[in-house]
Design brief:
Length: 147
C-alpha cells in the first residue's frame, strides 16, 4: 500500500507465510514499512512505524495500549469514487477506533480477512477491495493524527 505524505511516499507491505497443503490460509508474519531509503521490518504495523519514526505512537495518539478485538466492520465507502463530484453532500462519518492500539489491531484483522478473500476459489475481489478501502481509511487516520 502506498500512502503519499508531503513530498514522500510511505510504502507498507505485509509479509505472509503459508503452510503447504490444501485449504491453508496465509498468516501475517511481518510488516515491511519504507519511506525513502529507510526500510523497517517488524512484527506489526505499529512497531514498524515506531521504529521508523523513533516515536511511541501510543503517546502521540493518547490511546490505551490494552488488547482489543478487530471489529471486522468493513462497511466503509467502497465505491471507488474518491474524486468527489462536488454535489455538496456531506460524506458519512467514518467510524474509527479510539486508540492507536485499536487501529493497529483492526489493521491486523483486515490483513487476515484480505488473505482469506484472496484464498477463495475464485478470489473475492469485491471483499478484498472493501477491506483495502477500510485499511486505507485507518492509515489516513493515523497520518492525520500524527501531523
Amino acid at each position: 500500500m502506498l500512502v503519499p505524505i508531503g513530498n514522500s511516499v510511505l510504502y507498507v507491505r505485509p509479509l505472509y507465510v503459508q503452510a503447504e497443503g490444501d485449504n491453508t490460509v496465509p498468516e501475517l508474519e511481518r510488516v515491511i514499512v519504507a519511506v525513502g531509503e529507510d526500510v523497517v521490518m517488524a512484527d506489526s504495523l505499529q512497531e514498524a512505524l515506531e521504529v521508523l519514526t523513533d516515536t511511541d505512537l501510543a503517546s502521540i495518539f493518547g490511546g490505551s495500549t490494552g488488547a482489543s478485538t478487530p471489529s471486522g466492520d468493513n462497511t466503509g465507502d467502497s465505491t471507488g469514487d474518491s474524486t468527489g463530484d462536488g454535489a455538496g453532500a456531506d460524506p458519512e462519518p467514518i467510524d474509527l477506533p479510539d486508540s492507536v492500539a485499536d487501529i493497529v489491531a483492526e489493521l491486523g484483522g483486515l490483513q487476515v480477512d484480505a488473505a482469506k478473500a484472496l484464498a477463495e476459489d475464485p478470489p473475492d475481489w469485491i471483499e478484498w477491495g472493501q477491506i483495502q478501502a477500510r485499511a486505507q481509511q485507518l492509515l489516513d487516520a493515523l497520518i492525520d493524527a500524527s501531523s
